[in-house]
Design brief:
Layout (H helix, E strand, L loop, with lengths): L6 E4 L12 E3 L2 E4 L2 H5 L6 H10 L1 H8 L3 H15 L5 H4 L23
Parallel strand pairs: 1-3
Antiparallel strand pairs: 2-3
Helix pairs in contact: 2-4, 3-4
């Protein structure tokens, strides 16, 4: 695995349902429709995979795909990035840390009555 992140770079290639049609070139990940992801703070390949795993419905909406299409594309991207990004991001079973410090409601103290 390279210590340098793969930077998401726009390309003119077309996406097809269930496949982002990404390509690794040097230290860049060429991504069609990259603008749809940049608006969400996606800058690296790890960011993209994390975003797709965490917000599949947002990806589906942005690309006009079904949830199955997003799942298929996420799996293809995960396979493509194997050995190129931190292996912890490739683990789809890993539980995501809640964003913005959100806590699991089960861990909150009881409310005063």
């Amino acid at each position: 695995m390279s210590s340098n992140p793969l930077i998401v770079t726009p390309t003119d290639a077309e996406v097809s349902k269930g496949d982002l049609n990404t390509a690794v070139s040097g230290n860049t990940l060429l991504v069609p429709k990259a603008a749809a992801f940049r608006q969400q703070g996606v800058r690296t390949a790890s960011d993209l995979l994390s975003y797709m795993q965490t917000y599949p419905s947002a990806v589906a909406e942005a690309l006009h795909w079904s949830s199955g299409d997003v799942s298929a594309a996420t799996e293809k991207l995960r396979t493509q990035l194997s050995g190129k990004v931190d292996s912890s991001i490739l683990d789809s079973q890993q539980q995501a840390t809640p964003p913005l410090g959100a806590r699991d409601p089960r861990d909150l103290p009881d409310k005063p009555r």
